Every structure is written in structure tokens, then in C-alpha cells.
């Protein structure tokens, strides 16, 4: 559905998107992750034909976003981050107008508008002026506008930005439903949201794709090591020596306290040394207060990748789904 | 151009959602009415109508920028331009629909002044309908040229006030200053002829309105206004397209 190849966008003295390539297959829900200013919106604006790339190409459904822009625009539904709407129109009137511009035939328009109003949950608001809507309903109206012409591809830029937790949940449910019928590219910087909705993640940082894969494969691939935490009351040098002697050890850090000391142990991915640690501590007559494995989250991965890159090391692409 | 009717309808009706349009139209009518009253006291015949329409051509340099200032700059500022250009709508359709929307609104704003002709008959005057029709045609063509220029200026900035001031300065220059410098206007003394005054004189708006006021529809004047309209629309389309070059 989307083929992006060496896509680059440069403004005066600044590269917003730097030579990125990726594809999105029909029916996928792809989460486009990144910090503010990472290049998510710029990429989406190029895909929605708002402006062209400086270099490279973007194709949607086989059509080039620059040379066949009109064909691309007929096939996409786009919701920009700010959700710009005509404040002076009524919700129903606005959706009808946009459906008309998007080529929905006159006879089907009324049905298309009614259907989208029911799907998005705008029934009570259909006669209200867009300018009088709350943030949540504005967001829904933007979403309704994006899907009213039943596009093949939906591009949603931060669809839950600025919403309260209840509204986020509602919009997320709508997005999940939409994902069953159409291909979806969804940008966000809320990681939990993308974990819940996306089947694949593209992580963009400083204009470059630094990770591409399913949430599970990305976290698993990035982990590489397993990490355990143990809180032990006993002589620190002896505990340290005991832990270092365990098979599969990769590294350890210690936070020594007056009574209890915390040991953070990194091991080979296949090693689980919790049983060994518990046995050793008990056999030596020491006390054990906590013993747990740390599971890496998407958030940890995100922080790890972006921090590594900020420290100067080049960000390398991770697992391909 | 399949989207043109929908876009034009939206553009025209959007005027009535804003109090600004009502304020502009009210002030315009009050101003036109007062001017007509003063002219009628002076000349109790059809000339009052001709003088009024010529005078309105000048007054439109103030009113048209107020109509055109929001056309694109408001969409740029609110972000709705992004929604418009990412829909399957061409830049030409956008420019032409905005031009037509503003033209229809201006025609509606001018329309009540037709009643002044009836007033002339009531005070014993005998209106020359041919001359009045030609004057209205001239006024509309002039206004459309103003709108095309205002539309282009509005596409350059997201600030409506800047758009209005720039349009006014440009229209005022071509209506008043060029006429003043080249002496191509009847109402002003020939102060100084400047180099290229013949060329500048051709660009003077007022000079091209004069024959309409005499009841003559000169094809040269029609071509002149049509050229400005086409140029304004062309520049607007190029200005909208410029997002692709940046």
C-alpha cells in the first residue's frame, strides 16, 4: 500500500526526514513512533501530498505522491495533528461537504455521512457547529472526515493528542475498528497507545527510521540480555562473589545499603538464575527481600534507542518484521 | 473542475457566517447611500448615477481588500488549507472558487444600489439605462480585477490585516497614484508627467473605467480587466503551488 524509498525532506539548513525507506502492506496497522520533531508529521505530509520530498519517492497504492498526486489523494484519508476544521459549519454539513470533495456520489453521500456519524459516535453532535465542539468531538469529527469516503489508506497524525484518558480510550477503540477494514498509518508519541493498536512499529528519530518491526519482536530483539534485581541482606563482597560465579552472567551493578543491598544482574537471554540466587542466599544464611526479572517495555526501547543516538553513537535499524 | 460548484458554494456562504461580512456590507451601503444623496442634490439627473458608480470604483479600493483579506490567509492560519490541498481538489479549483465566491458576494453588496435608479425617476430625473448598465458592468469588472489582486495577496500571508493593507496599497497606487503621476485622470490636475507615463497610464484603473461611465463598452477596457483577473488567478495558483517548491 505504501512504498517509501530514500525519502528526504530538507528545509533551509535542517533535515527533517533523512533518507528513510519502508513499506506498509495492505491491511496493516502501522504505528509511527517518535519524539516531537522526529519527522513523523513531515513524513505524513509528504505521503498525503501536502508537500513533495526533497529527494526520494513515496508511492501510495502504486501511485507516486508527486507525479500522480491526485490519484493518491483520492485513495487516502488524512487527519493532520491540529485537526483543522471549518468552525462555522455544522458537523453534518461539514462531513457532507468533505464527502462531496472526496468524490462520494450525490446519491450515496447522505448514507455515507449517516454511517460515519454512527461509527464515530457523533449522533448527538450532528447539528452542532464545529466551532462549539469539545476537543474530543473535534478529534472525532476530524476522524469522521478522514473515513467518510472509505479510503484505502488512513493517515492519522496524533489522533489522540490533547484528549483525556476516557476520550483516548474511545478514539483508540474507533481506530482499532477502522484497522479491521483499512490500512492505517498512525503517528503518536504515546507508546502504550501504539502497543495496543499497531501490528507493526516504525520508530523514527532525528528524521531516520531506527526500528521497524512488531512490538514483540522489537522489544525481544532489543533486550539481548535478561536483567534481574535482587535485594539481599548479607556481606556485599561475598554476595557479589557468589553471583559472579553463576553461569551465564554478563554483568552486575551494586547499590550497597547499610543493611540491604540491591544487585542488578544481567545474564545471557536464555539464563534464568532466580532459583540459583534464592538457593545460595538461603544456604548462606542471608536474607532475601526481593528477586524479580525486569521486563523491557516499548518505552524502555524507545528511551534506549533515542538516548544512545543522543550520546553520539549512530542509531542502527532494528528487527525487520 | 468538478469540485468548483461545491467549493464556490462553500466560499460564498462562508461570508454569511462571519459578522465581518455584514459589517462591511452595511458600511458599504451607508457610504454608497450618502454619496448618492450628496451627488443627487448636485445633479438631479442620470449623471448622479454615473458619478456615483465612478466614485464607487474608487471606494472599492478600500472595501474589496476587506472582502479578499481572509480568502486564503484565514485558511492558511487555521490550517484548513492543508485539508483543502490534501483533498482531491486542484489548486486552480481552489483559486477560481475563492475568486467566484468573493465576486458573488461583491455583486450582492452592490446590488441594492440599483434602487438608486428608481430614486432618480422619483425626483424627476430620466435615467439613461444604457449608460447605467455599462457603468455597472465596468464597476463589476473593476471589482473582479481588485478581487483577483486581493486573492493573490491573501495567498502570500497568513495575516489578514497584512493582506488587507497590502491589497489596499496596491489598489490605491494603481487607481490614484498612477493617475496622479501620469495625469490620466480627469479629476486630478496634471502635476508632473513622469517617464513611461504612457505605459503607466495604461495600467491606471480609473482610466479604463471612464468609457464605461459614458455608456461605452470598449473591448480594450474589457481585455484590460480580464487580463488583470487572469494574471491574479494565475499568480494565486502559483502561490498555492509554491509549497511544492519549498
Summarize it.
The complex is a heterodimer of chains A (321) and B (246). Chain A is of the alpha/beta class.
Please characterize this protein's 3D structure.
The complex is a heterodimer of chains A (321) and B (246). Chain A is α/β, with parallel strands linked by helices. Chain A has 11 helices and 14 strands. In chain A, helix 3 crosses helix 4 (106-120) and helix 4 packs across helix 5. Chain A is elongated. The two termini of chain A are 16 Å apart. In chain A, 41% of the residues are buried. By secondary structure, chain B is an all-alpha fold. Chain B has one domain. Helices cover 76% and strands 0% of the residues of chain B. In chain B, helix 1 (4-14) packs across helix 6 (91-110) and helix 3 runs parallel beside helix 8. The longest helix of chain B is centred in the middle third of the chain and has 28 residues, at 129-156. Chain B is globular, with a radius of gyration of 19 Å. The interface between A and B is medium-sized, with 28 and 22 residues.
Quaternary state of this entry equals heterodimer
Question: Given the structure, what is the number of helices of chain A?
Answer: 11
Percent of residues in helices of chain B comes to over 70%
Rg of chain B over CA atoms, rounded to whole Å, is 19 Å
Count the DSSP helices of chain B.
12
Low-confidence stretches of chain B: 187-191
Distance N terminus to C terminus of chain A? Answer: 16 Å
On the 0-100 scale, what is the average pLDDT of chain B? 84
List the helices and strands and how they pair.
The complex is a heterodimer of chains A (321) and B (246).
Chain A: E1 2-11, E2 14-24, E3 29-33, H1 40-47, E4 55-60, E5 63-64, H2 69-75, E6 76-79, H3 91-101, H4 106-120, H5 135-147, E7 153-157, H6 165-179, E8 183-188, H7 191-197, E9 200-205, E10 208-213, H8 215-223, E11 226-233, H9 236-244, E12 249-255, E13 261-267, H10 274-283, E14 287-294, H11 298-310
Parallel strand pairs in A: 3-8, 3-9, 6-7, 7-8
Antiparallel strand pairs in A: 1-2, 1-4, 4-5, 9-10, 11-13, 11-14, 12-13
Helix pairs in contact in A: 3-4, 4-5
Chain B: H1 4-14, H2 19-42, H3 47-68, H4 73-78, H5 80-85, H6 91-110, H7 115-122, H8 129-156, H9 160-182, H10 197-203, H11 205-213, H12 219-241
Helix pairs in contact in B: 1-6, 2-3, 3-8, 3-9, 3-11, 6-8, 6-12, 8-9, 8-11, 8-12, 9-10
Amino acid at each position: 500500500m505504501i512504498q517509501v524509498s530514500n525519502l528526504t525532506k530538507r528545509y533551509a539548513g535542517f533535515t527533517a526526514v533523512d533518507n528513510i525507506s519502508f513499506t506498509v502492506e495492505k491491511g496493516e496497522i502501522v504505528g509511527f513512533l517518535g519524539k516531537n520533531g522526529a519527522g513523523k508529521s513531515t513524513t505524513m505530509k509528504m505521503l498525503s501530498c501536502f508537500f513533495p520530498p526533497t529527494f526520494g519517492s513515496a508511492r501510495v497504492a502504486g501511485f507516486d505522491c508527486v507525479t500522480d498526486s491526485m490519484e493518491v489523494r483520492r485513495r487516502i484519508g488524512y487527519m493532520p495533528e491540529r485537526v483543522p476544521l471549518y468552525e462555522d459549519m455544522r458537523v453534518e454539513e461539514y462531513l457532507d461537504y468533505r464527502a462531496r470533495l472526496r468524490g462520494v456520489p450525490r446519491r450515496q453521500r447522505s448514507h455515507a455521512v449517516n454511517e460515519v456519524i454512527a461509527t464515530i459516535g457523533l449522533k448527538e453532535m450532528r447539528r452542532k457547529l464545529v466551532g462549539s465542539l469539545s476537543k474530543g468531538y473535534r478529534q472525532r469529527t476530524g476522524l469522521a472526515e478522514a473515513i467518510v469516503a472509505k479510503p484505502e489508506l488512513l493517515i492519522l497524525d496524533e489522533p489522540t493528542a490533547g484528549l483525556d484518558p476516557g476520550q483516548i480510550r474511545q478514539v483508540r477503540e474507533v481506530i482499532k475498528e477502522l484497522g479491521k477494514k483499512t490500512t492505517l498509518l498512525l503517528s503518536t508519541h504515546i507508546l502504550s497507545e501504539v502497543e495496543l493498536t499497531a501490528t507493526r512499529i516504525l520508530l523514527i528519530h532525528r528524521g531516520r527510521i531506527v526500528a521497524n518491526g512488531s512490538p514483540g519482536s522489537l522489544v525481544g530483539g532489543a533486550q539481548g540480555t535478561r536483567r534481574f534485581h535482587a535485594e539481599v541482606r548479607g556481606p556485599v563482597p561475598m554476595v557479589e562473589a557468589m553471583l559472579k560465579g553463576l553461569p551465564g552472567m554478563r554483568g552486575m551493578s551494586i547499590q550497597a545499603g547499610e543493611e540491604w543491598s540491591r544487585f542488578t544482574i544481567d545474564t545471557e537471554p536464555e539464563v534464568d538464575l532466580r532459583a540459583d540466587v534464592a538457593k545460595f542466599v538461603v544456604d548462606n544464611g542471608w536474607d532475601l527481600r526481593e528477586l524479580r526479572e525486569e521486563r523491557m517495555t516499548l518505552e524502555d526501547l524507545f528511551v534506549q534507542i533515542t538516548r544512545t543516538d543522543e550520546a553520539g553513537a549512530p542509531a542502527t535499524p532494528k528487527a525487520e518484521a | 473542475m468538478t469540485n468548483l460548484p461545491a467549493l464556490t458554494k462553500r466560499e460564498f456562504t462562508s461570508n454569511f457566517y462571519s459578522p465581518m461580512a455584514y459589517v462591511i456590507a452595511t458600511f458599504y451601503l451607508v457610504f454608497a447611500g450618502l454619496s448618492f444623496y450628496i451627488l443627487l442634490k448636485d445633479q438631479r439627473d442620470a449623471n448622479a448615477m454615473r458619478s456615483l458608480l465612478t466614485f464607487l470604483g474608487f471606494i472599492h479600493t478600500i472595501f474589496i481588500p476587506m472582502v479578499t483579506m481572509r480568502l486564503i490567509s484565514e485558511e492558511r492560519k487555521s490550517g484548513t488549507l492543508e485539508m483543502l490541498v490534501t483533498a482531491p481538489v486542484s489548486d486552480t479549483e481552489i483559486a477560481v472558487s475563492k475568486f467566484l465566491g468573493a465576486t458573488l458576494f461583491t455583486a450582492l453588496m452592490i446590488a441594492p444600489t440599483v434602487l438608486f435608479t428608481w430614486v432618480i425617476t422619483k425626483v424627476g430625473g430620466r435615467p439613461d439605462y444604457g449608460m447605467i448598465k455599462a457603468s455597472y458592468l465596468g464597476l463589476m469588472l473593476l471589482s473582479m480585477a481588485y478581487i483577483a489582486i486581493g486573492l493573490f495577496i491573501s495567498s502570500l500571508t497568513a495575516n489578514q490585516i497584512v493582506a488587507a493593507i497590502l491589497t489596499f496599497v496596491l489598489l490605491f497606487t494603481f487607481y490614484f497614484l498612477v493617475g496622479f503621476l501620469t495625469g490620466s485622470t480627469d479629476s486630478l490636475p496634471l502635476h508632473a508627467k513622469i517617464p513611461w507615463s504612457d505605459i503607466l497610464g495604461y495600467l491606471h484603473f480609473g482610466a479604463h473605467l471612464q468609457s464605461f461611465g459614458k455608456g461605452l463598452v470598449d473591448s480594450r477596457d474589457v481585455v484590460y480587466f480580464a487580463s488583470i483577473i487572469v494574471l491574479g488567478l494565475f499568480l494565486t495558483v502559483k502561490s498555492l503551488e509554491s509549497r511544492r517548491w519549498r
